[in-house]
Fold each of these.
Amino acid sequence: MKKKLLIAVPLLALVALTAWFFRPKHELLGEAYVSEKSVTLWSSVAQVREQLGSLRYGDRVDTPSQAQ
C-alpha cells in the first residue's frame, strides 16, 4: 500500500503541474467604448487610492475575460 502511495502522489503532482502549465491564459473579450461623459480611472478599489487618469465619451477600451 505504501509503495502505491509513493507512486501515486508524485504522479498526481505531475498531472496537476501539467494542467496548470496548459491552463487557459487571460484573453481579451474584445473592445468597448466609454458611454459616459467622463470616467475616472483609479489605482484600486480601496479607500486609499489615487487617480490614474480619465476617459472621455467614445474612448476605446479593451475588456479582459476575467477580473485580475
Note: Helices lie at 2-21.
Amino acid sequence: MNIFLALLKMCLFLHRNLYLWDTKKVEEMKCKNSSMQKSLSAKMAVHCTAFFLFCLYSIYGYGQSGESTVDALVEMGFENVGWTEDDNERVYVLQNSAYRLQGVGIGKAVDAIQKMGLPENKSCRIIVLDNNVPQISLYYEPVKGDSVAMAERRDWEVSYDLKDSWKQARKIKTKNSSLFKVDIVVYPELSMQNLVITQIYTVLFNLDPTIEVSLWKGGKFTGQVIIPIYNEYGPSYEQVRQGYIGLSQQVRLPWNIFMTAAVGTFTNQRWGVDLSAIHYFKDERFSVEGRIGYTGKSRFENWRWKVSPLKRLTWTLGGGFYWPKYNTQFKLKAEQYLLGEKGLRFEMTRNYRYASIGFYGMKVQHAGNNGYNGGFRFQINLPPYKYKRRGYIPRVLPSRSFGMTYNAGNERYYGKSYTATLGNTIAQENSFNPYFVKSELLNY
C-alpha cells in the first residue's frame, strides 16, 4: 500500500506539472501552430497512462509475492505451506519433508523466502510444523527506516514462542498437504551383548520396514515388521514379528507445552498406552517433562502373538537444561521402571549436525553394583539428506538415524523401560530446539 500511495502521488505531481507546462506552451505557440495543442495533450495522456499502469504493476507484484514464495517452497518439496499477512506482519507456515536434517531444511526455506522478497516495512515470521503441529517460529524485524528488507540468516530470531501469529495462520488454506501420504521407512537394528564366555559379543541384526501415515493433524499410524537378518540371540528372535503397531497423537498446548499420546505395541516387548509431555520455560534453555505409561507384556512365540493384561505402571518426572554454546542437553529424571523399582537417571547429550552422542548414569533399586549403572549412546543421521515425494506415491527410504546404547554395567533386569514412538531418539528430540536450529543457520 505504501508503494501505491507513493506512485499515485508521483503520478498526480507529474500530471499537474505536465498540465501547466502544456497550457503555457499552448498559449505561447497557439498562433504559430494550432496542431501543437493536440500533440501536447496526447503526450500528457501517454505519460499519465504509463504511470498509472506502472502503479497497477507494482500493486500486482506486491500482492502476489507471498503466493509466489509459497509456490517456490512447494516446488522445493516442503509440505503444508501457506501464508497470510496483516498490516504489521507476514506469516509463512511450512513443514520440512524434503530435507532429512531439520536445521538444513529450515535454512533452505529461509534462503528461499529471502530470495523471493520479504514484505516492505513489516515483520516476517516463519512457523515450522511437524505433522501439522507448530513447533518453532523464526522471526525477522526490519530495521526502521530501511525501505527494502535485506535480511540474512543471522537476523532471524528462533523461538518456541509463536506469539499471536498462529491464531491467524492456523485458519489459512495450505498447499501440498502431508495428510494420507505414505512413507515406507526401513529401520536398521543392531544389538550386541557380552554374555557368553567363549565369545566376546553375540550379535543381532534386523531390518524393520515400517509404514508411517499421517492421518490427521498430529495423528499418525505406524505399522512395523521386524525381519531377522543375523541372529545369535536365540530361537525367540528368529521369527518375523511385529514391532511398533499403533496410533500416536501429538498436540501443542498453551505455554509451550508439547504432549504426545500413543497406544499400541512398543519396544522391550510391551503394549499399552503412554502419555508424555514437556514444557519449555520463558528462558527456553530450561524445561520440565513427565511421562506415564500403563502396559502389559507382548511377545511373539511360535508364530503367535501373546499379550498379558495391562498391569504395569511406569512414570518419569524430570527437568532439563540446554547449553547453547556447545549444543549440549542435560537431563535429570526420577523414574519407575518395568519391575516396579525406582531410580534416578542423569543424561548428557551433545548434538552435532550429523550425529548425537551422549552419556548416562543411573542409581536403581535392587540393581547390581550397589544399584549404579551407566554407559553411552549415539545416533548417526543416515543419507540421503534430501528427498522429495511424487504426489501420493509412497516413498521408500532409510530411517532418519541409526544408533546404539552401551550398557557398561551389563545390568539385564532392573532399570528397564520402553520407547512408545519411533521418533523418540536423541537425534530427533532436539531437532527443533531453537538454539540448535539457530546454530545451523549460522554455521552452515
Note: The longest helix spans residues 36-76.
Amino acid sequence: MLIRPAEPDDYARVIVVIDEWWGGREMAAMLPKLFFVHFRDTSFVAEGEDGALAGFLCGFRSQTFADEAYVHFLGVDPSLRRSGLGRELYEHFFAAVAPRTVVRAVTAPVNERSVAFHRAIGFEVDRLDPDYDGQGQARVLLVRRLDAVADG
C-alpha cells in the first residue's frame, strides 16, 4: 500500500466513489476539491499495488487554534476496512501536523462505525452537538490529544 500526499487529479477518483463508500449517503457535496489543491501537505491518498484508490484523508492545520488540526474526511474502500489503513492514514496526518497535539474530527451520530473507529484509535467523544451543521443537523465532535501518545 502506498500512502502519498493528495494531488488535484486525485479529486476525480475520490468523488466518484465517496457516496458508494458511505453506503449510499450523499456525501460528495461535503468534500470540495480545495482539499486536493490547498491542503496537499495534510491530505493523503492510499493506493494499492495496482494503483487503485484504497483510501484517502483530507485535513488541515487550524488557522484559529495554534495547537489544533482537523480531519474533514477519512474514507477507506469498504473491502479494506479493518485492515489498519484508516489508522495508517491518520498516522500520516498526525506526523504532518506535528508539533500540534490536538486533532479534531466530526461525524454524524448515525455513523456508529465511524464513532467506534475513532474511539479505537484513541479519539474521545468531546460532545454531541444537536445543531452543529444547522438546525437539526447533529454531529458527534471527536478529539484526540497526541501528547498522550508520547506518554503512553
Note: The longest strand covers residues 53-61.
